[in-house]
Automatic annotation (TrEMBL):
InterPro entries: UCP037465_Znf (IPR017211). The lineage of its organism: Bacteria, Bacillati, Actinomycetota, Actinomycetes, Kitasatosporales. It comes from the Bacteria. This is DUF2180 family protein.
């Protein structure tokens, strides 16, 4: 898969590392950040298991726009 932003810039040779959680486009390492997402899901029982944060890929455009979590 090709990175969407690289395609726009006509950059060749980059490989997408994931899918942006904001816009759903493929994005490469240069055009995205992998951010930690704390898992805060309440199950109604009041117990929280200690878990490592999840992670998500956010492209630069979405990160700048603040639309992704
Ligand atoms: Zn790219
Ligand atoms: Zn995006």
């Amino acid at each position: 898969m090709k990175c969407y932003d690289c395609t726009q810039e006509v950059r060749e040779g980059t490989v997408a590392i994931g899918v942006c959680s904001g816009c759903g486009l493929f994005t490469c390492q240069d055009h995205s950040d992998v951010v930690a997402v704390p898992v805060a899901r309440l199950n109604g029982l009041g117990t929280s298991h200690r878990r490592a944060p999840a992670r998500t890929v956010v492209c630069r455009t979405c990160r700048a726009a603040g639309t992704a979590h």
